[in-house]
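Postdoc handover notes: sequence design on the structure in folder B. Input tokens:
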């Protein structure tokens, strides 16, 4: 635990964000924060000032955060360095950590928890540097590798989860629009059947009806397939599934009788086999 005031240099090209970040961090009473709006100004400041930690944005004009980090490492700096940015691409995270950044934090979300995480990372990085200086780097390296591995995995999982949610939302909206247009098609199909009583058209109407039913079945399948592996498996009522399929997938000229017991349920297992029970 660090007992003295921690001096922090924060670099970002947005003056408004620098101001509010300084207020948040200094409100705890543990940090003294200096701010600059470019990496070049930061390099100039570091020639005459010493800091316990550096926070930097990634995307800045003239010199981005990772180039700034590389410059510091080339000068032999061992000051803890934290990338704090809105850029969330995985390759940026990996490049930052590979070039010596101690942490990578993505901007956004609820401000109180965001700056709580930032202040915790600053404390941890400063405390770790002090431990390295006191005990030697070799005793800390293994734990650090494990920590960064967990950090990368956490970032990867969050990115994957966000991508899945966006894809699910997009496919849901698209499917909704298709269903709407399919309903219009079904209504016009029924109107034409009533208007055109000529038997020569019956075969065409029949084929149109079959095509509509197949499209409806495909849409239903894509919805169910999308849920596989996304939602938590639950015990499912088999009889209810058959009843639902009967409404959408069974051609009009067939009659489906559902004789399955009401107590029959199945549970999808990771091996893709089905576990059944009678409750």
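Designed sequence:
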């Amino acid at each position: 635990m660090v007992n003295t005031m921690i001096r922090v240099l924060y670099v970002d090209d947005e003056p408004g964000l620098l101001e509010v970040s300084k207020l948040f961090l200094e409100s705890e009473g543990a940090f003294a924060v200096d701010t600059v709006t470019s990496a070049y100004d930061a390099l100039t400041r570091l020639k005459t000032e010493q800091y316990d930690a550096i926070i930097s944005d990634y995307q800045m004009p003239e010199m981005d955060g990772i180039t700034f980090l590389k410059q510091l490492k080339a000068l032999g700096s061992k000051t803890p360095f934290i990338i704090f940015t809105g850029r969330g691409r995985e390759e940026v995270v990996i490049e930052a950590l590979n070039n010596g950044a101690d942490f990578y934090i993505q901007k956004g979300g609820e401000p109180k928890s965001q700056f709580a995480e930032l202040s915790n990372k600053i404390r941890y990085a400063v405390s770790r540097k002090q431990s390295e200086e006191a005990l030697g780097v070799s005793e800390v390296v293994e734990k650090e590798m494990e920590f960064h591995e967990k950090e990368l995995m956490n970032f990867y999982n969050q990115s994957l989860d966000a991508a899945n949610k966006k894809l699910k939302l997009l496919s849901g909206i698209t499917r909704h629009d298709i269903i709407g247009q399919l309903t219009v098609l079904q209504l016009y199909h029924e109107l034409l059947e009533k208007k055109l009583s000529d038997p020569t058209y019956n075969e065409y109407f029949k084929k149109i009806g079959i095509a509509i039913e197949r499209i409806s079945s495909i849409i239903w399948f894509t919805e169910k397939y999308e849920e596989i592996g996304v939602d938590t498996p639950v015990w499912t009522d088999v009889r209810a599934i058959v009843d639902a399929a009967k409404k959408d997938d069974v051609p009009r000229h067939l009659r489906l009788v559902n004789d399955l017991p009401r107590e029959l349920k199945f549970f999808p297992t990771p091996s893709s086999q089905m576990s059944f029970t009678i409750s």
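Context for whoever picks this up: The chain is about 55% helix and 15% strand. Don't rerun without checking with the PI first.
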